[in-house]
Amino acid sequence: MNSTLPFGADLALPLWDVEPSEGAFTLQEQKEPTHINGVIKEVSRPWLFGYKSPKPNGRAVLILGGGGYVELMVGREGVAVALWLTTLGFNAFVLVHRFPTAKTGAQAPVDDARRSLRLIEDTGLATKGLGICGLSSGGHLAAALLAGYPTSWKYPNSTETTPKPTFAIIGYGPISTNAVGRTIIPDKAPLAPPEKQELYNIVQPDVQLVSPPPPTFIVYSGNDPIVPVINAYRLSEGITKAGGVVELHVFADAPHGFGIDTPDLPVSRWPLMCEAWLEQNGILKS
Q1: Is residue 197 over pLDDT 80?
Q2: Any bridge partners for residue 165, and if so which?
Q3: What is the DSSP string of 260-280?
């Protein structure tokens, strides 16, 4: 990559203003920083970074990395995923979204993700379809894009329509087990900051899906110590009940945050399984 843009991107789009990307977010210091090991610790102004496929199939994917809504794994679960998807023909876009805080409110990540879908469609790089790919907390955020927008919130651009995703890839996301009343851990303490807990309480995608949801590929670890696998089952059941079609893969032994680079375990093959699913559903066709 010879790009001078952050993370080696081909294009960069601010979400809500026209300010430069300098000072918009803070990266964790790395001994040997690369485009695929970046971790963002703070976001004041969200940005979208695009990667064009050398052999585009006419579709794009919005990529949502994890980090528990308190940091963002923009490298391993963002840029690395984007580079993989560009090899399959997708134009890929990595979102650097705001975190739910007292300053931004609980809805900030969802608003940023919805705005990103609109911006991607407006680039003309998703003429045949626009998918989403979210991992960990990004999996919850991706699922939120398949759900109805909460009636208690007010979207900043009230006249703007949000494109509906045409397919989804969701991995090891806490879909609803962090919500009060739906946890599997007795007397689970509230998450901090309060706005993060509020986000999980309000957005429970498995029971709020817009019908019909798009074809969805779901991948989880059966022994994930951070995100219980029941989230996969809840989401799969919710999509099926809402009239959607699901491909569900649960690997018996895999760490949380396995991404696409965990070696020497069966879970390392999930990107190939996902590629086969995309091909079977006609999503790779030009």
Answers
A1: yes
A2: none
A3: TT--SSGGGGHHHHHHHHHHH
